[in-house]
Amino acid sequence: MERLQKIMAQAGVASRRKCEELILQGKVQVNGETVTELGTKADPDQDIITVAGKPIKNEKKVYIMLNKPKGVITSASDPEGRKIVSDYLKGVKERVYPIGRLDYDTEGLLLLTNDGEFANLLSHPKYHVPKTYLATVKGVPHGTELDKLRQGIMLEDGMTSPAEVEYKDVDPDNKQSVISITIHEGRNRQVRRMFEAISHPVTRLKRISYGDLLLQNLKRGVYRHLTADEINTLTQLAKSAKPEGSPRKKR
Ligand code: URA
């Protein structure tokens, strides 16, 4: 027996918190009875659980890493008809959704799953899974400018927490450089805004790692399933990640 909101989240209905709202709104029934108590438990293999009249599916859990190309939108549909990540998931029968986002113009490692619990754990603001990006920026930032990013820099939504920053490549004519940056938050367009704040705008951005997971040589536009070890390691990492030290304004 498990809590109803946990079973629902695992079935990919929504995040656990959203499932709690659905229960409180009286939209969930167990064996025909409407349940509005958050502590209610059920047996996912025996009980018939419906949300807004539709039975939830006990789908196989899938965990996917996609090398998202630039020019692709991280959402389930796009009214403007642009390419969406599911265009690259041919052969995945389960309805998966992205864990966090990458901008339209950002490429690289994107995780997708139908496991609401896992998605919730990794994207919860309390946990800070490190994410590393390779940023190609205009010009060559001075070491003191990179120090500002290392220490935390003021953006319009508050101070960023400390980042790890390293030069990777510098153009001999000083026209551009490639910098690796690891951040522990996931604010909107954060890396681009950090480099804008030191007047070295990003011209190309690629996420190359998420926690211990590395993009490595996965080809652009190609996906692979995570291994059981990778899923476990990521779950442990998220659970052990420390709450953020520096306070920041709410977005
Ligand atoms: N930071 C950004 O600026 N863009 C992304 O897509 C991810 C992190």
Would you write up a description of this structure?
The chain has 6 helices and 17 strands. Helix 1 (about 5-10) crosses helix 2 (about 15-25). A hairpin with a 2-residue loop joins strand 2 (about 30) and strand 3 (about 35). The relative contact order is 0.16. The chain is an alpha+beta fold. The longest helix is centred in the last third of the chain and has 13 residues, at about 230-240. The protein folds into 3 domains: about 1-55, RNA-binding S4 domain (Structural Genomics Hypothetical 15.5 Kd Protein In mrcA-pckA Intergenic Region, Chain A), CATH 3.10.290; about 65-125 and about 215-240, 2-Layer Sandwich (Alpha-Beta Plaits), CATH 3.30.70; about 130-210, Alpha-L RNA-binding motif (Alpha-Beta Plaits), CATH 3.30.70.1560. The strands form 4 sheets. Strands 7, 8, 9, 10, 13, 14, 15, 16 and 17 form a 9-stranded mixed sheet that branches. Strands 3-2-5-6 form a 4-stranded antiparallel sheet. It has helices at about 5-10, 15-25, 115-125, 145-150, 190-195, 230-240; strands spanning about 1-5, 30, 35, 40, 50, 55, 65-70, 95-100, 105-115, 130-140, 155, 160, 165-170, 175-185, 200-210, 215, 225. The chain is elongated. It binds uracil.
